[in-house]
Amino acid sequence: MSSSCLVNNEDTFNDEEISRLSLEIELLKQELNKKTELLKTKQKKCLTKLDVSRYSRQIILPEIGIEGQKKLKNASVLIIGVGGLGCPSSMYLASAGVGTIGLVDYDEVELNNLHRQLLHGQCNVGMRKVESGKLSLSRMNEDVNIVVHDVQLDGYNSLDIFKQYDVIIDASDNLVTRYIINDTCVKAGKPLVSGSAIHCDGQLTVYNYKGSVCFRCLHPKPQSPETIGNCASAGVLGPVPGVIGVLQAMETIKIIIDHPNVLYNSLLLYDGGDCNFKKIKLTNVKRAGCLCTRSTEDIVITMDYEEFCGSKANDKFKTLNLLNEDERITVIDLNKLISQNQPCLVIDVRKNVEYDMCHLPFSVNIQLNDLKREKTLLELIKQINSYSKTPNVITICRRGNDSQRAVKELKKYPQITKKVNWIKDVIGGLNEWSMKIDKTFPMY
Question: Which residues does the Swiss-Prot or TrEMBL record annotate as the active site (predicted)?
């Protein structure tokens, strides 16, 4: 039997019929997509039975009500930094039913984050912060759309990201990023909820809202990098960024629902040690010539912000090179000298509190700033004279920057240099000792 006998002519289609059916299918798909988008739009505008039940405790507030909850459901908020401030602010916004939350961060979860960054668990150490944050927030409220931006924010990517959101939260940890965020908000016309926390103190304000001043109005020139600390170098008590982050969420909600008392043209100061809040009235007049007084087209956000601020756009440790190679030793060299019982005076130049946290048992603690004091120098000379053989002086710190400064300081005094073989510092400091010599030694 030939193959042609196996084909039923009534079931065959010519090319014209196939094209017609394909076109019908494509039109049906387009119609389905339109109806799906329409359904999503209607679902967004309306509160479901589940929404009413879930958010009932805030809906009954006259400040929120049904209309306010609808605004929250349709709102989008971008949070720059999934750290001490970004974690609590995102948690409360997700719990309040904000429809879309964007997370911007370039970093991974570290063990030293966990005392204050409560979105991240110990099992998430090493995970990208935006992914860890999305995982936790989705568990809290699966109806909220969490969008991740795993990037380091700069003047080239910020505008495209900011345009997607209604309100911007600055939960960053460095001055460069603060200027980038401010300038992009001004150019994009977005309100900015700005917070900061360090030690036991915090600040909060809202910029670029209803014609208010911007960050540059108050800070046209950046502070010197030496005068600005961060959590890594200066420390912070965990609940402090928690307080400020929650307040950032509060101000964001007020902006979304158009509350009359948003914190703009005012600065809120929080002193956690005294449990004291203080509100300072800021000028309501924009600074003449400020970026925020220009037209949108004239605002440039692709400048070299790191050069402008004199610092990096992250809180990562910056390694200094202040000494020559022959003025430094490795942790392996140090370990060998100690093992051979060589006469060495090892000076740990960190702060007293850091020395108390962890230190090498054969070291003495003399803070870097104390090396400039005459009394300290006299005591140091006594220690050097107590050695039966001419000693070596070795300075050490956490990561190898302050120890270099200490060497340069000590070499200013001939009464010390004449009494020792040499003065050198330890490359990489105690962190390097922990990685290469004693893995049980704590890193912080």
Answer: 231 (glycyl thioester intermediate), 397 (cysteine persulfide intermediate)
167, 193 Cβ separation under 8 angstroms: yes
Question: Measured between alpha carbons, how far apart are the two ends of the chain, in Å?
Answer: 84
Ranges of the chain with pLDDT below 50 = 1-9
Distance CA 113, CA 165 (A): 27
Residue-wise pLDDT tens digits, 113-148: 999 999 999 999 999 999 999 999 999 999 999 999
399 vs 443: CA distance, rounded Å: 10
CA distance 408 to 429: 16
Annotated active-site residue in 231, 275, 290, 358: 231
Whether residue 200 lies in the annotated active site: no
Handedness of CA 311, 312, 315, 317 (dihedral sign): negative
Q: Is 173 annotated as a binding residue?
A: yes
Angle in degrees, CA 166, 149, 205, rounded to 5: 45
The rounded distance, in Å, linking the Cα atoms of 321 and 17 is: 76
Annotation-wise, does 370 bind a ligand? no
In single-letter form, the type of residue at position 263 comes to L
380 among annotated binding-site residues: no
Residue 41 backbone dihedrals phi, psi, to 5 degrees: -65, -45
Q: Is 231 labeled as catalytic in the residue annotation?
A: yes
Q: Is 292 annotated as a binding residue?
A: yes
Q: How far is CA 20 from CA 7, 9, 29, 140, 190, in A?
A: 22, 19, 14, 48, 49
Check whether 114 is labelled as a binding-site residue: yes
What 3-state class would DSSP assign to 359? coil
Supply the pTM of this predicted model.
0.74
Name the residue among 435, 429, 427 with its Cα closest to residue 398. Answer: 429
| Domains, the chain, with CATH or none | 49-309 (3.40.50.720), 325-437 (3.40.250.10)
Q: For 57, what's the count of Cα atoms within 13 Å in the CB-facing half-sphere?
A: 3
